[in-house]
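User: Predict the structure for this protein chain, please.
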Amino acid sequence: MFGPRFILRTTSVPRTGSIDYMYAGLKGADGAKDIIAAILDRRNNDISQLILSHNSLADDGCTLLFEFLASDAGRKYRIQKISLNSNGIRDRGLASIVTFLKGDTSLKELFVQNNEFACTDPSLAKSFAEATNLSCLEVLTLSTNRHLGDQFITDYAPFLDSPSLRELHCSAMGITHRSVPILVEYFSSPCCRLETVKLNGNSLGFRGVRSVIRAIEQHNYTLTSVEMWSNNGPGSEVDNNVTQDEDDDFPTHGTWQENNAALIPIMQRNDHLGKATRKEALELLRLARTLLLPSHRIDPSLAVFPFTQLPTELQIYVLAFLSPTLSSSQRHRICAYASSFATLPRRYELPGNPSTSSSHTNAASTAAKGKLKLLNSLGCYFYEREVS
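Assistant: Here is the predicted structure, written as structure tokens:
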């Protein structure tokens, strides 16, 4: 059988932007040293991915690797994806990952499934959640870490409030019906900004899955992909999480296919609302930028009724008619962003600037003038109602 050093030489020229040492026979600290040497050998810092799955780095290798990545020398490599699946990493290695995440601004995808994490110290799970919140992670895969289970969900989910995290994979982690109330609370909270969640192969139970579906239907509008297949394993038989008042809404009979079918219209609803929200938010930002910047002067020919002389609250109320899908808090944040010079991109040119003469700018200006006429008429109507 070939030794790891020989295998490393055969893979020492990975594809551009990636160091791929999957199944390379890397072991412990020596394996981490080989990875670090390969990173340092790369010119122009052009590394975006570390693919290190199915080795045996364990705690020693993981700790040494992430200590390097967290150093000044390591930070200059803007790595966006790290895969450490099946490396026998335990809690000490996870703690080094947590330390790295707290100061990182590049990593977007972290795959650490099928390791030996246990998080026997609740503070580690809490620190992991807080580090996730501070990071730029968009995808986090923890599946098949079977030693985590309910205790990890209890210690992790209540502190998770990441503005960037969009995918969370927690399949086959030994999660039972005891975690259902915590999952329900998290999915119902504004802190949950996930778009994809995977909970396959756990033991939530039929009623537990129904409880999660109901929470998403009533309170969550960001999730567009939810998987909860094969959740009838050991630990799912006893379910005391559903109160007596909910018994009529949660039948004890049914099929997993029916549960999945119940999710489809909810996911379609959230997908539609997400697209509409993004579209309306962009349209509102464009117009609010034109109208609400303090120094901008409206074209005198359009000032039949001076919209910008209205109280700010009434301006935002009128603008709301152009973005019916957005909530009042969303509109307020967009208008606050649009009215600040600090949020302008560099070399920004205000509408009407003589140096701006492209056809695109002229078309945008024409559209803005048309909407401004509408807003002036609406503003006049609501102003007359306000003073009468």
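Residues 296 and 350 are 8 Å apart (CA to CA).
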